[in-house]
Each structure stands twice: as C-alpha cells, then as structure tokens.
C-alpha cells in the first residue's frame, strides 16, 4: 500500500471540504463527465439520541422520534417537499439510522432549485398535533413491515440481549405505542438541538461545484454566524455485562435463523481505525477466504450469506454474526472454536493482506458513482474524517494490530445468542384457492 | 455505445466509458427457457461461480478476486419473459489504480472467459462434489423463498398468472427436481447453452485495443463450439381472463398483496415511452396516484407501487397492507386505475411525472450497471439500440391520450394476498 498516494487515486478522491461560519460542514466532489448530482444533508441525530440537555433543560424522548421527525420534515406550511422536488425532477428520499438522519436527492437538472427545496425543508420545520396524528398511521405500517423481517429481528434481538439500558435496544422506528407519545414540542426540541448547522454535514458529488453549493448556503443563511446550541447528550451507565445471554422467538420462516452477538468496549467517536480493524478481523475469521466459511459452506450448515458485521455508535460497539441454519448451536461452537484458534495462532498474513486489498478496491469503487461518493464523504465527515484519511488508515493497519485486538474482542463471556424458530406457517405447501368474481 | 455482429448470433457492445474508476466485461447467453432444463439452468450459475478449470477451488477463487482489489466475478441467471439469460461478468478497478502496476483488465478478461468456457470439469462433467454442494444451496434458496414475503407473494402471483405458458417456467428452479439433478444433466444443459444461445459480449470502461483482445479471445473460444444459435422468443402477453383471487395464510404482522394485470397483446416497441409515463403516473413514482392517494392520503399501505414488464406485457401492483384493510386496498388500487383511464389527468401531475422520468434517464449513463442494463434491455427488445437521449425525446412526445390508451388496455388477471387466518390476534 506504499503507493497509495498515486495521482489516479488523488484525482478520484479529490473532494473539497469547508466549514461555514454557521458551523455547517460542506463537502463537494466534482465528477467531470457525469450528468447527475447526489446531495446528502445529514445530521448527527439518530434513534439512540433519546436523552439530552438543551440549554440547561432535560429532554427525554420515546423510541422512534428521530425517524418520525425525518418523515415530518418533508412537510411544511406551504406543502409537501416531495411535491416541490417533483417540480425540479429530482428524486428525493431520506433515512434514519441509529446515529444519523440523512435527507438526499439525485438530480440531473434544476440543481439550484432542488438545493433550495432541501435546505429549505430541513431549515424550516413545521409540526402540529394534526400533522403528527396523520403520520402515526403510515409509520405504524412501516414498523409492522420490519417486524416481519427475520434479519432485522435478529439485530434488534441481539441488541436487547447485549445491552441493559443503551437506547440501541429500541427499534429505530420505535413502536406503535412509543410514537403515539410524540408531541410537536418534542420535535421542535430535537430540531433546535440537533438540526443546528454545527451538527450537520452537506455533501455533494457529481455535476456540481463548490461555488454552487456555497451560493445555495448563502441563500439559506448558512454563511452567517449562528449561536451555538448548548446540547449535552445524556447516557445511562452501561456495564460490560449482558442483559441476557439468549433470546428465542418464533416467526413464519422456513429455516431457523440465528445471531451471535459480542459486546465490545465502546469506541471513541472519531476512532474509525478500530472499526476498520474489526472489519478486517471478521473478514479473516469468517469471510469467504477463511477456512471456517468453507467448512460451513461445504457442509451446508449455514446459508451463503452468513457473516459478521460491526455495529458501533456512541456508547455502544458490538460484533454481530447472523445466518440461517438447522443447527445453530453447531455453528456457534465452530465459530467460537475458530476465534480461539486464530487468537492462539495469529491471523493468516496472506488473508489479512487480501482483505485489505478488497477494502481498498471498495473505497475506489465508492468514488465511482455519485450516490456512493456523496454517501461515503458524508459518512466519514460525520466522524470528522475524509476518504483519503480512511484510505491512509487502511494502509497503516497490520496483521500484528489484528492479533493484538483479537486478544480483547470476541470474548465468549460477552456473547449472546438469538434464535428465530419457524412457527410452522411458512411450510404450507399450497395456497387455498378462493376464486371470486371481480369487484369492478 | 457501439454494437457489431462479430459472428452469427454473437455481438459486441462496447463503450470506453473513460470517466469510471472500474471496467466491466460481461458475456450474456440468452436462449428460450425450457421446462425440462429449468432446474439445471437455475443450478448452473451456482456451480460456475465457484471456480473454473484454472482455478477450480472456491476459496482460491475468492483469494484471486481479493488479490485483484476485490474484483467481482458473478454468474447470474435472470428470466426475461419466456427467455432465460445467463451472464458471466467480471468487474474491477482500472489498471491505473493498481498499487503494483498489475495488468488487471487482462486478468478480468481471463476470469470471465475462463468461467464461461472452461468450467471445472472432472471426467468431462461438472465436478460432482461441487454439484452436490450447490444442489444443497439451491434447495435451501428455494425453501427459503417464503422468508421474504414480498418476493414470495410476487412469485406466487406470477405462478398463477402465467400458468403453463413459456413465461411461467420457474427459472429459479423446481424444488422437487433438485435432488435428482446429475453432473451429466448439468453439463448437457451447459453445452446446449453454449451451442444455441445468442451471445452478447459487453465491454465497458476498456480502451479499444483491450476490447479487440477480449473480442478475439471470445471468438477463439467459440471456434471450439458447434454453434447453432436459436432465435429468442419475442414479446408475449397472457390472454385476458376472469380475475382470480388467491389467499394464502401466514401469521405475519403485515399482509402482502400482489395484483397482476395483462395488456392482452404483446407490447409494441413504440409503446414503451407511453408505458413509462403511465407507470410513473399510476404507481411508479412518489408523484403517482397510488403513492399520493392510496398510501399518503388513505394510509392503506406502507408501500404501494406499480411496475411493468415489457417482455410479458404485464403490470404488477405490489403493496404491504394491514390485514383488515386488504380488500379496501385492492378496491382503492383498482379505483385509481379507473380514475386515470376515465377521469381527468391534470397537466401538472403529468408534467411532474414526465420531469422525474426525464431526470432519471439523464443519469443512466452515470453508472456501469445503468449503462449495461439499459443497452442490454434494448438488445433484447430487438428494436434497434435507442439511446437514453432518444428515449427522452420519445418521452417528451407522449400525450395524456397515449397514457390512457395503455392503462385502458390493462385488465386484472390475478390478485394474490398473503394474510393471516381470520381471528388471529395482532402480534
């Protein structure tokens, strides 16, 4: 990786970075030859931000407020932002994760107008009891859709086992009951606390220049100094013990699904290096090049999608393995055995280097299209880093680093297991035929 | 994009696409689907993707790809109406990003051609051990289909809709046939594909000299095959019928509804622009009637969207609904269709939808995947190679009456509902 700073790479990752007087971080990657532009306006506010102090006053939120607010942000006094984007031809969307909310659009024309819609809708929230009540039905449907997803239930079930009080235990969208508690005041408090420019990032990639972005920011008052909100996130103490070692549920799935979770020491917010290192360790332990993956694959003990991932947010870091298997306990023993073997014998040097190669290729690939490029910039910027810094951090990682990290992560004493068992309804062989007349 | 015939039934599609960081070499094999070999062709990509003669071991293959900076090698099977398509594709970063100056593009070509033409045979047939393992994987995938309720509902609806027609052949394979598949049968299906398929070599992001080398290498491979390319099936459509309503019970939190409509006659290539606008207006966009009225205004569905399949002249409306609201949702979906056919369409909504489509089409050539999908679909439609710009011009000319004409042609054939049994309590 000594040649990382090659001209080709420097050109591909040539983003421009500015912090405006308002505190907003702006990143632009002009991509010559592209027709489209992808813009992301992101705030460090997600489902885990439930308790905070705002200008000396404590605020406590029910589960699901960040996601609810994301939905409501598309609505203001003079209409629906989707309708406004429709006038510019932009394709708009938004999403909420555990620790961030992102508003985005892709456009090939009327870019300035689309930027005005985006910056205007996020800058001018408007909520009433009536508009909140209306949204509860739609979000209730979304919650139910996720309740039917075995993959998602594995993640949320493992978080419930691993954590006593950290808000990662709650679903991002909350529950039908928790979102029924939401009031306009809560939403305005969240806007004041977390939608301040100093807590946000605006990233754009494609057929766009920094001048265009700055002009849009100027139109929306983002070049002016803003008073800094005094916000302090409040966290309940989270011990390193587990809330539960095991959870079992039944669902309409054809095969049993399982998840193994390991509770790890939380990482500092700007510690992307450890997250990257843990990813490489997972690649070596159970990725496609590992002997374990091959044994599991050849014996048919898991599905090809079996693998591990790192989940880290403020105050929480865990490593989760999920898959399908008729013999989840056998897979668990094989995984634990392999972790112990690698811990004892050391990481395979060849595989470690190949995993780094893969990561490097992935970072280059993400600079190729406008969506991935803007997303990657925004993701790293929210942690105070750039793409180039991430590539340099990758280059500096060694197998010795991985060996050292493995001495304290993935410890069986901090492991929980989640089982989803078929409830039997997914095995019905044929549909019940009910031929009826057309209602038209 | 340039397309040239380089041998009977073999074409080259090439775009140097210099702005991208990666290049892509794909070999598409398209041929009419056959019921008797459907399961073999479903298994074929799984076995081929494991490795090839020069690199037969799956783990070694993964390491080879990682050495090439995480290059992708995929063998992917997809149905296109009554035709089956197998695509071998290698994608990776361009040579200029290689840290040690490796000739990456040459290696991608070797991987793609090796995988397509030199499988890992043992005794003249696919390696029986690999076949055995991948049969388990296929079996598992077919059994697991039911885990993804949205896809399962759509597939069940398709099965009812297409019945025994060629487009109804289950190209994902038949569960009850998996165990009996032999390496010999798989090898025969593979050889038949090499001999009869229409082949499209798609090269994106490579310079002319590199492209010529890959083309010549492909022709050398084909010189060893007794080629007898078969014509593809044209566009088709299911006949109109009395709507069938099917209900299947699962104890899910949310019900799934899939409604399938037929155009009654094969879609003509000149209808595609009107079809695109009709879908955007009815249920294919966030300014559509289904999104704005059924989802946002009536809160009947969390998602409710329409899509059109041009090869089969069929439209699907998929939605996720409250169990108790399924009948109301179906009625609302049909009402919105009727309103568009017979009621007013405002200039504003039409132009909003048109603008959104035009904007999306302008960005198609911003990704390798977008370019490949667009032009290969154009090839399969067999109506000349329309560029996204030409398609945008055609879209600008579509009138309200053109849209209405398409929607009026659609009639409901199947409504498939996954719901729980009456009386089951909320979770």
UniProtKB/TrEMBL annotation, chain A:
Residues 182-357 form the Peptidase M16 C-terminal domain. It comes from the Bacteria. Residues 63-174 form the Peptidase M16 N-terminal domain. One of its GO terms (molecular function) is metal ion binding. It holds the Pfam family Peptidase_M16_C. PANTHER family: METALLOPROTEASE, ZINC-DEPENDENT PROTEASE. This is Insulinase family protein.
Automatic annotation (TrEMBL), chain B:
SUPFAM superfamilies: LuxS/MPP-like metallohydrolase (SSF63411). InterPro entries: Metalloenz_LuxS/M16, Peptidase_M16_C. Gene3D superfamilies: Metalloenzyme, LuxS/M16 peptidase-like. Residues 181-354 form the Peptidase M16 C-terminal domain. GO terms for molecular function: metal ion binding. This is Insulinase family protein. It comes from Faecalibacterium hattorii. The lineage of its organism: Bacteria, Bacillati, Bacillota, Clostridia, Eubacteriales.
């Amino acid at each position: 990786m000594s040649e990382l700073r090659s001209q080709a790479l420097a050109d591909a990752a040539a983003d421009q970075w500015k912090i405006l007087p308002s505190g907003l971080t702006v990143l632009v990657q002009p991509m010559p030859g592209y027709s489209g532009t992808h813009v992301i306006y992101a705030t460090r506010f997600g489902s885990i931000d439930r308790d905070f102090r705002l200008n000396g006053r404590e605020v406590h939120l029910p589960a699901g407020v960040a996601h609810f607010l994301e939905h409501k942000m598309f609505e203001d006094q003079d209409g629906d932002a989707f309708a406004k984007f429709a006038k510019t031809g932009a394709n708009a969307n938004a999403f909420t994760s555990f620790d961030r909310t992102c508003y985005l659009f892709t456009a090939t024309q009327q870019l300035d107008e689309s930027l005005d819609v985006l910056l205007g809708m996020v800058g001018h929230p408007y909520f009433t009891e009536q508009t909140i009540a209306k949204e509860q039905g739609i979000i209730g449907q979304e919650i139910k859709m996720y309740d039917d997803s075995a993959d998602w239930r594995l993640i949320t079930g493992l978080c419930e086992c691993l954590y006593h009080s950290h808000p990662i235990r709650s679903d991002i969208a909350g529950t039908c009951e928790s979102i029924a508690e939401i009031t306009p005041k809560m939403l305005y408090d969240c806007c004041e606390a977390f939608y301040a420019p100093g807590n946000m990032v605006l990233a754009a990639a494609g057929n766009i220049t920094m001048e265009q972005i700055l002009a849009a920011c100027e139109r929306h008052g983002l070049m002016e100094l803003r008073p800094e909100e005094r916000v302090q996130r409040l966290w309940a103490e989270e011990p390193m013990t587990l809330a539960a070692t095991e959870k079992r549920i039944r669902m309409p799935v054809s095969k049993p699904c399982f998840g193994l979770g390991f509770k790890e020491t939380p990482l500092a917010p700007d510690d992307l290096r450890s997250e990257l290192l843990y990813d490489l360790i997972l690649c070596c332990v159970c990725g496609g090049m590992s002997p374990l993956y091959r044994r599991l694959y050849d014996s048919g003990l898991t599905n090809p999608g079996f693998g591990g991932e790192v989940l880290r947010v403020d105050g929480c870091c865990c490593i989760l393995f999920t898959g399908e298997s008729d013999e989840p306990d056998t897979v668990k023993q094989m995984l634990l055995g392999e972790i112990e073997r690698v811990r004892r014998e050391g990481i395979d040097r060849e595989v470690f280097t190949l995993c780094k190669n893969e990561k490097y290729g992935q970072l280059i690939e993400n600079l190729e299209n406008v969506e991935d490029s803007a997303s990657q910039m925004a993701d790293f910027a929210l942690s105070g880093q750039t793409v180039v810094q991430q590539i340099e951090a990758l280059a500096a990682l060694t197998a010795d680093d991985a060996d050292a990290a493995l001495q304290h992560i993935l410890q069986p004493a901090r492991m929980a297991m989640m089982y989803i068992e078929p409830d039997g309804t997914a095995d019905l062989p044929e549909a019940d035929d009910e031929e009826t007349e057309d209602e038209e | 994009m340039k397309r040239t015939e380089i041998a009977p039934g073999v074409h080259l599609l090439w775009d140097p696409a210099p702005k991208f960081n990666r290049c892509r070499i794909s070999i598409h094999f398209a041929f009419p689907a056959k019921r008797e070999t459907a399961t073999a062709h479903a298994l074929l990509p799984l076995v081929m993707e494991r490795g090839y003669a020069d690199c037969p071991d799956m783990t070694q293959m993964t390491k080879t790809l990682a050495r090439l900076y995480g290059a992708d090698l995929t063998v992917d099977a997809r149905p296109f109406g009554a035709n089956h398509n197998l695509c071998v594709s290698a994608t990776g970063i361009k040579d200029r990003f290689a840290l040690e100056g490796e000739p990456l593009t040459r290696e991608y070509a070797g991987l793609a051609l090796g995988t397509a033409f030199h499988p890992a045979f043992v005794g003249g047939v696919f390696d029986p051990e690999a076949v055995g393992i991948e049969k388990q994987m296929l079996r598992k995938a077919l059994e697991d289909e039911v885990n993804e309720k949205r896809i399962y509902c759509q597939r069940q609806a398709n099965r009812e809709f297409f019945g025994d027609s060629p487009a109804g052949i289950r190209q994902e394979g038949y569960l009850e046939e998996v165990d009996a598949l032999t390496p010999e049968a798989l090898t025969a299906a593979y050889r038949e594909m090499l001999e009869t398929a229409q082949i499209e070599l798609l090269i994106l992001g490579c310079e002319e000299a590199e492209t010529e080398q890959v083309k010549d290498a492909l022709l050398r491979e084909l010189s060893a095959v007794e080629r007898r390319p078969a014509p593809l099936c044209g566009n088709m459509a299911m006949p109109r019928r009395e709507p069938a309503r099917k209900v299947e019970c699962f104890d899910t939190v949310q019900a799934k509804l899939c409604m399938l409509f037929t155009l009654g006659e094969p879609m003509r290539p000149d209808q595609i622009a009107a079809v695109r606008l009709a879908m955007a207006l009815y249920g294919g966009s966030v300014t559509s009637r289904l999104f704005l009225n059924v989802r946002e205004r009536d809160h009947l569905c969390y998602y409710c969207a329409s899509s059109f399949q041009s090869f089969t002249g069929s439209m699907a409306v998929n939605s996720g609904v409250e169990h108790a609201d399924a009948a109301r949702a179906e009625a609302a979906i049909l009402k919105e269709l009727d309103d568009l056919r017979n009621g007013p369409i405002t200039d504003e909504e039409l132009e909003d939808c048109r603008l959104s489509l035009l904007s999306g089409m302008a960005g198609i050539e911003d990704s390798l995947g977008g370019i490949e999908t667009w032009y290969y679909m154009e090839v399969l439609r067999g109506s000349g190679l329309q560029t996204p710009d030409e398609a945008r011009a055609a879209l600008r000319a579509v009138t309200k009456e053109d849209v209405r004409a398409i929607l009026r042609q659609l009639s409901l054939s199947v409504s498939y509902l996954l719901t729980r049994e009456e009386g089951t309590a909320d979770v």
